């Protein structure tokens, strides 16, 4: 999947990601402020999360329950300085739990990630739209 979108198309993009992802571990790459958290919040809504999703910048992970009693984990590894921090918190238990794992700043824990994780790259375009590339590995 490779699409350009505006913010008013966010729900459609989130639905496309959920539908086209061949794995429940999604790695979100993009510059600061490009909209990773905003997109993850919309994906949470599409998955049936009723609580307000927010970035787990200081807690590293937030856990949400869907209306179907499924679990969604939202990670933000921006502040991770050493992969051992993520390892010590048991990140591998989350990643191999068969639950949705939505990960911001995955490059900070690259050696701990499943090889078959889905890559989501977001770039801001000059016209204010975003380009999104989804790659099933």
Shape: globular
Reading off the top of the CATH hierarchy, the class is best stated as Alpha Beta
Query: Residue ranges: pLDDT <50 for 5 or more in a row?
Result: none
Major sheet attributes? 7 strands, mixed
Strand content: 25-35%
Into which percent range does the helicity of residues fall?
A: 10-25%
SSE pattern, N- to C-terminal = EHEHEEHHEEE
Gap between N and C termini, in Å?
Answer: 13 Å
CATH H-level superfamily: P-loop containing nucleotide triphosphate hydrolases
CATH architecture name: 3-Layer(aba) Sandwich
Q: How many domain units?
A: 1
Q: Compute the average pLDDT.
A: 93
Secondary-structure-based class equals alpha/beta
Structure explained in plain terms:
Strands 1-7-6-2-5-4-3 form a seven-stranded mixed sheet, covered by helices on one side. The chain contains four helices and seven strands; from the N terminus they run βαβαββααβββ. With about 140 residues, it is an alpha/beta fold. The mean pLDDT is about 95. It has a single domain, classed as 3-Layer(aba) Sandwich (Rossmann fold). The chain is globular and about 40 Å long.
Helix-strand layout with pairing:
Blueprint: E1 2-5, H1 10-20, E2 25-29, H2 36-47, E3 61-65, E4 71-76, H3 83-88, H4 91-95, E5 100-104, E6 118-124, E7 130-136
Helix pairs in contact: 1-2
